[in-house]
Structures are given as structure tokens and as C-alpha cells.
Amino acid sequence: MKKSKDKLGQILLKEKIITEEELEKALDVQKKEHSKLGDVLVNLGLVSEKDIVVALAKQLSVPYASYGKGLLRPQADQDLSKVVPEEYARRHMLLPISKHLNSLTVAFVDPLDLITIDNLRHMTGCEINPIIGTRSDIQRAIDEFYGKEDLLKDAISGSYELEEFKVEKASSDQDLSLDELIARAEEAPVVKLVDLVLMQAIKDRASDIHIEPFKDKINIRYRIDGILYEIPPPARHLLPAIVSRIKILANLDIAERRLPQDGAFLVKVENKGIDLRVSTIPAIYGEKVVMRILDKSSTPLDLNELGFEPQDLENFKKAINSPNGLILITGPTGSGKTTTLYAALNSIKSPHKNISTVEDPVEYKLDGINQVQIKPAIGLTFSSTLRAFLRQDPDVIMVGEIRDMETAQIGIRSSLTGHLVLSTLHTNDAPSAISRLIDIGIEPYLISASLILVGAQRLVRRLCPECKEAYEPTPKIISDFNIKQDLLYKPKGCDYCSHTGYRGRIAIYEIIMVNDDLKELISRGAGLGEIKNMIKSTGIKLLLDSGIKKVEEGRTSIEEILSITMASSI
């Protein structure tokens, strides 16, 4: 292994991945913590894991192997799982890739672990040819090669449980007694099946799991980047046991199968807590279960990471730092409105501000912020909680959603009496929020006096960075959307993105600061069309404009933007 004279920090500097100041900061931390420089830089958020691995590859003159490009796929005809046993590969985070004569190519997370390399040389009787990959890529490749993926497929297909899990197919859920449901839900095969469905969903970055009963089958679907994908379902007769197992985890009543129920539970993955919100409804062929996966670590709560354009970000920060007023974020369910408001609160929270939220439900728990979940059954509603907040000396109030006139009135009057109020509405675009408040019953002069910013947003899928393809847009596309780039990108599909062409999502925004001209229009009860025309004339970037900017930056595709925005653009 020929090592470069340049140190890791110098390589990162040459590649302009970090600055001198950032390197000095990391070196200071390294001296105090006695950690590896790469680990320190990643922990500080200055670089990604991939940046460090690529730099190490250059420093050590070792090839870098990416899972997405298929370079971490072991040769299938060489019995490599016998050459390097699974337990050893997992313990030392390495993967055999190929064997030629007396040379064994192995992917390492740490190719400087000379003891492991020497032990591997003695164990296999081969000279070791090291390559390097990221920990997440190698972990995924190990799981795939040694059969973890197959374990899930076997569990879902029922190929191994059914030998131990002896059942007779019941004609309906009601044929099973409560004791039978509990016993079956606690059977090891069912416990393992539910655990594996959850593990796979979290690993695939799913936001929701749908378990749907039909006459002769069960459907299991994961929502990934906003799109539902089916996975191989278990046998139909396992439905009562699966639902009961989930109900037990969520502390729900397993005997009640006629009414909807809601609950929650926590799972831990790699010492990281992930909340799951459970909802059940009685369908004609059994209970349907939907589980929302709330992984705070994968949700950006930094305003700079959400997708704002620079001017929109400046306006939004100015608004949320106002001492009083009303800020509304609009969009359909699942468009990321609550995440934007959480990021706003995370940005402005301080020991000098009393911030309270009322939500249904509380999706993420934020340190330093008082959060209340409504419980309508006992009279704890949005409006009653808002009234209580006003006796709690608040500075900032977040209302999860304005649903009725009473909540809207209290929120607006709170914003007029020295409080900053943030909330959401379900409308297609930002101007429609104004007309929605009027429809609810709020006087136009109150809206004009309180509203300081209204925004709309959508989530669009990011193009996969490993496989996106460049192409030249047609003259019509350039003309229709005023494209300023010679090359755009489109999805292709690879292992890294599960052959969808997309991985992850980013928000596009329509941010409108309520200026004096707009206030005047609102206060005199102008119609929605007049308000939209005035906004257009000011040159404010709308949802489509924000989306086209993301297309020009190579972050998403023109097709994705058009599918999201054309119906709602004004």
C-alpha cells in the first residue's frame, strides 16, 4: 500500500472540501478528544462520510468502491462466503469481493487496520488486496451478500414460520378469541416477522408502512420519497396475529376491532430512537394498519438545508424573528409544512424566549420547547389550548393547523397582542390562504393587520447522485420554462436508489412577504384573482419558479417538478 505524502487534511484542502479555518477547528477538537481526524470532521458536520473515504483512497492509493456503482458486489461463483465467514465480515466490517489465484480483493472501512489484514491473510492463505468503501455502503453490501435481505423475504413469504406456526385459516378475525390473538401475537415467528418489516422499512428510508387486508391476500406497502411500493406479502391467515402484535407494541386494545384506534411506540436502531405512530381502521376484510415512521435524525431541522432560495430564506428568517405577527405555511398533507415550522422554531429558540406548540399529534420532540398534543375526547382542543397558552406568558406560539374559525380567531388575536404565531393551512398555494381565512369567517381587516408572511411548499424527489444522466433540453423546454442551463439531468436508476432514479426529497417554496400594497388589497376584501395578479406583477418566485431553479441545479428533474406544480401554479 503506497501512501501519499499529503496528509488527510491537506487532501481535503486541495479538493476545496474544507477551509483552513475548518481544518484548524477540527485539529483542535482532535487534540482534545484523541480521535481520528476523519471522524472529527464528520461529527462536526464539515464533511460527509464519502468525502473522508474518497480522500483516504487518494492518500493511501487504494481504490474507492461505491455500492451504487455496483463495485461492492462479490463474485458469485467463487464461494467467497466460505472464504470469509459472515460473522468475521460483520465483526470487522469488511467484504470479500473477488479471488484471483492467490490474491483476495477485500473491501474495508479501515484499510489501515493492519492487524485485521494480517489475520485475514493467515485465515484465507491469500495475499490481501484492499479497497475502501463507506461504512454504510459496506454494511449494505454485507447484508445483501450474506443473506439478510433473503431473511426478510423468507419471513414475509412465511417459508420458515409456517413449520413452527401451526394455524388453521380462520374465516374472519372475529372467529379468534382474545386469548388466541394474544398467544399468536407473541409467537416468535410473528414477532420476528413484524420486527423485520419494521427494520426493512427503516433501512429503505420509508416514511409510512401500510398493511392492508383483502379477501384472499394482504398487501404491505412502503412509502419511500412520497411514492408507495409493494413488498412481498405474508400469508393471509397471519393478518390477525400481525395486527395484534402491532397493537400490543402500540398499547392499543386488541379486543376492539370495530373502531379506529391510534397509538405509538419506540424502536431503537443502532442506539437511535425512532418513533412509530400507529393508526388502525376497520375495513371489510379486517383491520388496516398504517405506521408513520418518525426518524428525527433523517429530518433536517436546519433552515439552510430545506431548499429555500437565498432571497426566500432571508425573508423567512426576517419574519420568524419578528416580535409579533402571523406566519402561515400552506400545502397538502405530506408536503413538509410541519418540518418547516419545526426548523423555524429550532432556529429561533433561546433561553430568552418562551415557545409553546399545540399539535395533533406531536411529531418530533424538541428540547427547550413546550409541546402539547390535543385530546378532543377530554376537551383539550386547539382553541382551548391556545386560550391556556395566553395565560402562560408566551413569546412564540405554533399551532399545528388552523381548522376552524375559533382557532383562527384566537391565533390572529394572539398575533395582534404581541405574540409571534406560526401555523399551517391546507391550500394549494400561498395566496389561497388569505381567501381560506376569509371563508372560515375572519374579517379581512384582521388578516391584513396580523399576517406578515404566507408561504406554500411541496416536496419533490431528488435525483440519485450516483446515476443521474445529463441531457440537452429541447428548444421548447428552454422556451417554455426559461431554462438557463445547457444541460439538465434526468433519472436513470441503480442499486443505490433501488432503480427508481431518485433518492430523498427536497422542498420547493413560494414565499410572500405581506407588504403595504398586499395589506391594502386584503383589507378592502379583494378577490383571489386580484391578489394573485398583484403578486405576479411583483416578480415573486412561485412554486414552479422554485422548482425550475432546482432543475437547473441538477437536483431534480423537469418531469418531477411539472407533476408536482402544474396543478397549483398561479
Give the helix/strand layout.
Layout: H1 8-14, H2 20-33, H3 37-43, H4 49-60, H5 80-83, H6 86-92, E1 94-100, E2 103-108, H7 114-124, E3 127-132, H8 135-146, H9 148-157, H10 161-164, H11 178-185, H12 188-203, E4 208-213, E5 218-224, E6 227-231, H13 239-249, E7 261-269, E8 272-283, E9 286-294, H14 310-320, E10 325-330, H15 337-348, E11 355-359, E12 370-373, H16 382-389, E13 396-399, H17 405-416, E14 420-425, H18 430-440, H19 444-450, E15 451-463, E16 469-471, H20 475-481, E17 488-490, E18 502-513, H21 516-523, H22 528-537, H23 543-552, H24 558-565
Parallel strand pairs: 2-3, 10-14, 10-15, 11-12, 11-13, 13-14
Antiparallel strand pairs: 1-2, 4-5, 4-9, 5-6, 7-8, 8-9, 15-18, 16-17
How would you describe what is shown here?
By secondary structure, the chain is of the alpha/beta class. The chain has 24 helices and 18 strands. It has a 7-stranded mixed beta sheet with strand order 12-11-13-14-10-15-18, sandwiched between helices. Helix 16 runs parallel beside helix 17 (405-416). The chain is globular and about 85 Å long. The protein starts with 7 loop residues before the first helix and ends in a 5-residue tail after the last helix. The model is unreliable at 158-175 (pLDDT under 50).
Specify the number of helices: 24
How far is it from the N-terminal to the C-terminal residue, by CA? 60 Å
| Largest sheet entry | 7 strands, mixed
> What shape does the CA trace take?
globular
The strand count comes to 18
Helix content: 25-40%
Structural class, by secondary structure, is alpha/beta
Poorly predicted parts? 158-175
| Strand-residue proportion | 15-25%
Strand order of the largest sheet: 12-11-13-14-10-15-18
Average pLDDT: 84
Radius of gyration equals 27 Å
